[in-house]
Amino acid sequence: MKAAARKDMIDVDALCVGMFVHLDLGWMSHPFPLGNFKISEAGQIATIRSLGLRQVRWSPAQSDVVAPPPASGGAEAGVAVVGSAADLDAGVAATGSAAACAATEAVAESVATLALTAQAPDVQVCRRHREQLAREAESLALCERQFAEAALACKHLTDCALTQPQQAREQAEGLSRALVDKMLIAGDLCIRLLSDAAGDKAAVHALNVTVISLLMGRTFNLGEADMLDLGVGAMLHDIGKLGLPERARHHDEQLSSTELRLYEDHVARGVVMARKMGLSGGATLVLAQHHEHADGSGFPLRLGTDRMTAAARIVSLVNRYDNLCNPHRPSQALTPHEALALLFAQGKTKFDSAILGALIRMMGVYPAGSTVQLTDDRYALVVGVNSSRPLRPRVLVHEAGVPRNEALIVDLERLLGVGIRRSIKPLQLPSATLDYLAPRARVSYFFEPLRAAGSADRMREAEAAH
């Protein structure tokens, strides 16, 4: 007896434009920016089929079609519809899969509109809020899975670097390629604050530096080859620390002169390893120069801006930013806002001014992870920044009476009349707000394509905000 087929699975040959699909693969196993998305063009269908999958999971409720088209010539083909089944079946049979998708899309839209307008206004608001929360939770969970997978891959390649340098290089290049492919897409990217960046601290630091450096490279329109070198160099910038005593792996004012020399020697050790691994010249120079400063005060060669590569200048700055936010001693951590302010105040001469300005513009005056007070006096945690328009980020708002698991996430870019008044240290927040917002002990970022929002989204956010 044949086992019943899962209703949420569909043959790849039956895919059509308008379907919302889930690719249950690792994020490095497919070329799409996200693993779940609505098919918008035939080329995406061809790409899915090229992955060798026989079936994929799909969500009818999130699709523009209510059922797949019938398989050509299939005796068991049928269409489940909403509305007049006989009329729609006739249209499907007459016009084939493309027309079927269009017909079912029209029916689904009409039925959804009728169902929504039949509800009371307060029911509509609650439903929209639940849908917004579900979208946010799904989006954040996806970013965290992707970050965790990349961090684990980063740890694996680091673990084998001493004994299998060629394999480590191939893995670093593969991970860099995966990040670059997902970053070099049309449209803006949202820089997301992760709620959990568990994992090996060294791997998380390497990935933080890599992600932000590549986002910076994107803002400067670096070519694909330069982006790949930037990614590999950023990922392996601290590879020379392998084999050093734990105490000598982090800069600390309490280091002895011997420990300080060992710490600074990680740059030269990294270059030696880069050659054993067979890294490209561009990636190797990132390792060699990631502690140099624009004013010649860095180490080991005291190079100035004119002798540093663009990739090395980017990594030098981003490495410092992440170390300020996530220092070896957590008690010394600065908020992302404080870290940028310090770099701007004290780092103007140490770092390339154009790159420092670009980092501040990209991350925003209030980067993700900053705790802020809004102009309406509410407190909030910045959770997402549009890399191209960062001045009005997405914030998680402390709203009295709203449970933490239903917290409002408001896009200030679309909410007129409300902005950020000031940044505030987490410990300066009221105790109830501190518990509610729960600022992260470690700040880590990932990225996702910024979904365009229409007037309906703006209306929902305005309703949620009030």
Task: Looking at this protein, list some descriptive labels.
466 residues; alpha+beta; Hypothetical protein af1432; globular; disordered C terminus
Helix-strand topology string? EEEHEHHHEHHHHHHHHEEEEEHEH
CATH third-tier fold name of the largest domain? Hypothetical protein af1432
The first-level CATH class of the largest domain is given as Mainly Alpha
Largest sheet: 7 strands, antiparallel
What structural class do helix, strand and pairing data support?
Answer: alpha+beta
| Mean pLDDT level | 83
Globally, the shape reads globular
Binned, the helix content reads: 40-55%
Q: Over all CA atoms, what is the radius of gyration?
A: 25 Å
**Poorly predicted residue ranges:** 71-100, 452-466
Question: What does it look like?
Answer:
- The structure is a single chain.
- The chain is an alpha+beta fold and about 475 residues long.
- It has 3 domains: about 10-125, no CATH class; about 140-365, Orthogonal Bundle (Hypothetical protein af1432); about 370-465, no CATH class.
- Helix content is about 45%, strand content about 10%.
- It has 14 helices and 11 strands.
- Helix 3 (about 120-160) packs antiparallel against helix 4, helix 4 (about 165-185) packs across helix 5 and helix 5 crosses helix 10 (about 310-325).
- The radius of gyration is 25 Å and the shape is globular.
- The model is unreliable at about 70-100 and about 450-465 (pLDDT under 50).
